[in-house]
Amino acid sequence: MSLPLLFGPYGYDAVDTIDRFATYGANALWFHGFNPSGFEACRKHRIAACVEFKTFRADFDTRPELIPIGVDGRPIRYGRLVQGVCLSQHAFLEEVREELILGIRTFQPVGIWLDYLTYAGWFETPKPDLQEGCFCPDCIADFCQATGLDATTPEQILRNAANRWTRHKCERVARLATEYAELIRTHLPECIVGAYMCPWTPDEFDGALRRIFAQDYTLLAPAIDVFTPLIYAKKSGRPAAWGRDFLDQMPRFIPQDRRVQLILDAMDYPDSLLAAADARNPSWGIQIFGGAQVFADPQHAQVFRSAAEHIRQRAAEIAESGPSFR
Ligand SMILES: [Zn+2]
After folding, report:
1. Across residues 249-278, what is the average pLDDT?
2. pTM value > 0.85
3. What is the Å distance from ligand 1's center to 92 Cα?
4. Neighbours of ion ligand 1 (CB under 5 A)
5. Where do the structural domains in the chain lie, given as residue ranges?
6. Ligand 1 centre distance from Cα of residue 51 (Å)
7. What pLDDT, in 10s, does the model give residues 103-114?
8. Rounded distance, CA 14 to CA 38, Å?
9. For residue 60, how far is its CA from the centre of ligand 1 (angstroms)?
10. Which H or E element spans position 37?
11. Which stretches within 154-297 are classed as H helix?
């Protein structure tokens, strides 16, 4: 499947400026969930409707059974922002699956980006509180069954089989991603399947991309067409050129035949976009989180247009040169 280059804002509130998208080089709108108004606005203005679909995230106050169990046998610490759930909670996973099926039977999005496709934690911060999990009895039993190992406590697992534990978590997430992708592709064969990703390289924070968040690019690649790392520079205490640096490094850890499309934060605009547009390996389109404000301001929108044009040219060069160019 040849993947279109999609550019535009993330956030339903950007529909207020959707009539200007085409003028400023945007051809897509990403919004949360299967929002009928989002689809209608996109249809009317011939803009690609893309859904951000929430997978493993819930309100822990109302769903305490979903809170993963930490290494001390107690529910993990968490603050206002947290993602990830105990993946042995089958009733919850069934709810997610049913919501996805209802959406893809009702609407025809151009793309669906799976969000929160991770184990528990929060990475949009300079100093993340990284915790191992989930060590509930069901998750430990699942690990033992899958690996043939006989472990009963978190200490035993982390001392004797830490790598196998990490791999097992990554496989669980990838298996669910595959299940969602198969549902989407069965109902909507043309639909792009994207995934929002922890934006860290595999070695940062002692391997936390896989060790904590259980996101393994190679295992996820069969399910995911477009990987979208969340490049929120200010929120994460990183420089504006973070996205460009990510793109420059990606051949090291992302399978060659997969596309990477950054989501940048309007808080970092326009510096992060200008830097990303300069990357050797182009971002396969761009999303701007909170992008409504970019398109409401003609000067900012003009910058978007120029950057998108530049990225399109780079992408065309890459396409002509073949995948080995990367
Ligand atoms: Zn669990």
Report:
1. 97
2. yes
3. 12
4. 86, 88, 134, 136, 139
5. 1-54+229-326, 68-88+112-224
6. 28
7. 999 999 999 999
8. 10
9. 14
10. helix 36-45
11. 154-160, 162-187, 204-211, 217-220, 233-236, 242-249, 271-277, 292-296
